[in-house]
Specification:
Homotetramer. Major role in the synthesis of nucleoside triphosphates other than ATP. The ATP gamma phosphate is transferred to the NDP beta phosphate via a ping-pong mechanism, using a phosphorylated active-site intermediate. It is an enzyme of class 2 (transferase). Belongs to the NDK family. The protein has 140 residues and is an alpha+beta fold. The protein has a single domain, classed as Alpha-Beta Plaits, CATH 3.30.70.141. 39% of the residues lie in helices and 20% in strands. Strands 2-3-1-4 form a four-stranded antiparallel sheet. Helix 3 packs across helix 4. The protein binds adenosine-3',5'-cyclic-monophosphate (CMP). The site of adenosine-3',5'-cyclic-monophosphate has 9 residues, from helix 4.
């Protein structure tokens, strides 16, 4: 399996509850390296652009309002099979379905306010990383 990079977002429900360090520990304990990271406050338009694939979904307005409500931490995680590994560490989208010990099982409040986002495939990882980070910010 190859070394990969994936885009992760620690969402407003988690930054509000001061959970950045606890969530980062979950990534590092799973063997993922945080090779880039910054705390930003998205506008609703920026959140809408990032999640445009969901534009037709009934929860799109709720999702983009939430993502712009408070700061987020955007980060690039690197490691062996990082995309799948991150998805395993996050747990299922709905915390009610998330396996014990996963980030969403431990911290998420609801399917909408589910503490973290992670890329779902190599192509989206590439697009999502370049949405937030320039090559100069990826120091490895
Ligand atoms: P995420 O991995 O960030 O990708 C899209 C997000 O949409 C997802 O996590 C959820 O937070 C959100 N989402 C999915 N389904 C629903 C829903 N039924 N209601 C509100 N938000 C949702």
């Amino acid at each position: 399996m190859a070394t990969e990079r994936t885009l992760s977002i620690i969402k407003p429900d988690a930054t509000r509850r001061n959970l950045t360090g606890k969530i980062n520990a979950k990534f590092e304990d799973a063997g993922l390296r945080i090779v880039a990271q910054k705390r930003i406050h998205l506008t609703k338009a920026q959140a809408g652009e990032f999640y445009k694939v969901h534009a037709a979904r009934p929860f799109y307005d709720e999702l983009t309002t939430f993502m712009a409500s408070e700061p987020v931490v955007v980060q690039v995680l690197e490691g062996e099979s990082a995309i799948q590994k991150n998805r395993d560490v996050m747990g299922a989208t709905n915390p009610a379905d998330a396996a014990p010990g996963t980030i969403r099982a431990e911290f998420a409040e609801s399917v909408g306010e589910n503490s973290v986002h992670g890329s779902d495939a190599p192509e989206t990882a590439k697009e999502e990383i370049s949405f937030f980070f320039s090559g100069l910010e990826l120091v490895g």
